[in-house]
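Re: the 429-residue chain
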Amino acid sequence: MKKLFTLLAVTIAFTVNAQTNTNTGIESLNSNTSGTSNSAFGYRSLKFNISGKRITAVGAESLLNNTANNISAFGYGSLRSNTSGTNNSAFGYLSLESNTGGKDNSAFGDLALEDNSTGAQNTAVGYQTLKNNLVGVANTSVGSRSMETNNSSFNTAVGYQSLAGNNWGMSITNANYNTAVGYLALQKNEGSRNVATGAWTLKTNSSGNDNVATGYYALHLNTTASFNTAYGSMSLYSNTGANNTAFGHRSLKSNTTGANNTAFGYKAEASANNATNQTVIGYEATGQGDNSVVLGNDDVTAVYMGEDSGAKVYAGEGSFTGNMTIGGDVVVSSDARLKENIVSLGSTLAKLLLIDGKRYTMKKDGKQKIGVLAQDIQKVFPELVTTDDKEMLAVNYQGLVPVLINAIKEQDDKISRLEKLVEKLISDK
């Protein structure tokens, strides 16, 4: 009799039926009729499964409503609502708890993919990872609370609260194709096609798109701006502008609303936090103004083009504050086909006589010079004088050449007439 009771107890607790199913727990596999190769361990696990096959449920109410095939659930309430979703794996308390028809999902960790219903091809590893995802597909999330409120698709997040979202309990539906690797990387993101690698990178980004940040705190405060690239810790840290590129530790760190800037080098910075279209290259180099290029910092003494092998340099207008030494010829473009309204300069000798050559000392270095005064030139040839942004005058010395040519011609004409007059006077004697 004792053996009979023991056999009866074992039969109730552990049943191996003709369909190769195994179950342990009250109401586990209770409704199964034709399903085969299933294993259920825990109160009401796989309770409503009828024909599903190759299913493993471990934990109270795990896979409670399941009717699909090829599923594994480990933990209380894991995959509890699943009905038609196939090829899912859930490990942890309430993991994939709300999933109904979503397929090919893997959840590892308490509450991982808890709210997922029809989303597919998602992988969540860590506490509350992808917790609020409902329909987002092809997401990969690794790290506690990473992608917690995300409900978008094709994202990859690795790190605590990476791509977690800003509004807890709400579902973000428009943040797609993002990659976040690092602690709090892209934490509050609702933009798309962003890449953040490093702790705190793009942490504050809300709706900005197509940004790339690599390095601790890179693009940390960016919110809505797009098309920025930052490589280096704290590069573009304060940025809220668009189309900026920074390479190097703390490069463009102070930039806020500035746009279209490029900086290469350790602590390379624009001239202002709202700078526009500045290119700054070099160690601790600083921009000088909008729409300008700076090569090197104050310690740079020479710039070589093509290792001094004769490379050509093309530019528009230029300004030099120091001496210029040129080893070759100075050639100025002067093709007639580039010009119109061409007229002779005419007589210039009288005006030229109003200009006096000067000898003077430069205030900045005490060097003796010979030249003209811009104010004198401006009175007779204003076309040859320009004014810079500091209201300082400059003279186009090259422009004096045609003035001298016409003056020489005028003087030569006078000399020729005098020679003829002398010849006539001599012949009349």
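The first strand starts at residue 15 and ends at 16.
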